[in-house]
Write a structure and sequence with these properties.
Helices cover 42% and strands 15% of the residues. It is of the alpha/beta class. It has one domain: 2-Layer Sandwich (Nucleotidyltransferase, domain 5), CATH 3.30.420.10. The chain has a 5-stranded mixed β-sheet. It has a two-stranded antiparallel ribbon with strand order 6-7. Strand 1 and strand 2 form a beta hairpin. Helix 4 crosses helix 7.
Length: 236
């Protein structure tokens, strides 16, 4: 049986883990690519509201210095508490050496072009806000053909790359705040609690009140239904 880890060894393990999360950025910086952007989205699954994407560029000087101390522990936004997300969001938005872009595609555009295309469009719009433009993009998940920049797709990238983690936090907090605002306009749906996802509370509100203006009409159970020749309900 292995002996229990000492505090010193635990600290070394954690430092290595933090360092590894900057590994993809360091590799690209070492090749002379200074503007390395992480990009991620929030809001693909909800029944209401926009999909939001964020792009984040850390300074290449972090190749040697490592990530800023106040960002240690930054992770996939889904792995953080709301309080942790807000803390990291404030650091990211106010750090003078970090550049970022945020964009969203609304419910109407999602219905028009579908959620996948809307997500890719939001990512492209967020990246286009960066100045100077990115030289390489780290993408969470699969490659995005719509992006015009060289890219590396990372499965579970929001937990493997600090840049993507940062983008996931900015996108998530930005979208959550929008849903909280809309909760005040349409309080019957509980947007502040579930952020538009298809929870039992949300589905019950839809059954009682029908959709409001920001609901995605192309998403089940909001798609119009019709009966086939045998009388069974099918979606259009």
């Amino acid at each position: 049986m292995l002996p229990p880890a000492s505090k010193g060894s635990l600290r070394c393990t954690m430092s290595a883990r933090f360092r590894n999360r900057l590994g993809f950025e360091r590799d690209l910086w070492s090749r002379g690519l200074n503007a390395v952007a992480g990009v991620d989205e929030a809001g693909r699954g909800p029944l209401a509201g926009p999909v939001v994407a964020a792009a984040v560029v850390f300074p290449a000087s972090w190749h040697e210095r490592g990530v800023a101390t106040r960002l240690r522990g930054l992770n996939d936004s889904k792995q953080l508490t709301p309080e942790e997300r807000e803390k990291f969001f404030a650091v990211l938005m106010n750090h003078g050496d970090i550049r970022f872009g945020v964009a969203h595609v609304d419910h109407a555009e999602i219905d028009r072009i579908n959620i996948l295309q809307a997500t890719h469009r939001a990512m492209a719009l967020a990246l286009e806000q960066l100045s100077p433009p990115p030289e390489h993009v780290l993408v969470d998940g699969l490659a995005v053909g719509a992006l015009r920049w060289p890219q590396t797709a990372l499965i579970q990238g929001d937990a493997r790359s600090y840049s993507i983690s940062a983008a996931s936090v900015i996108a998530k907090v930005t979208r959550d705040r929008l849903m909280i605002q809309w909760d005040r306009e349409w309080p019957a749906y509980g947007f502040a609690e579930h952020k538009g996802y298809g929870t039992p509370q949300h589905l019950a509100a839809l059954a009682e009140h029908g959709p409001c203006p920001i609901h995605r009409r192309s998403f089940a159970p909001l798609r119009p239904m019709e009966r086939d020749l045998f009388g069974e309900l099918i979606s259009e």
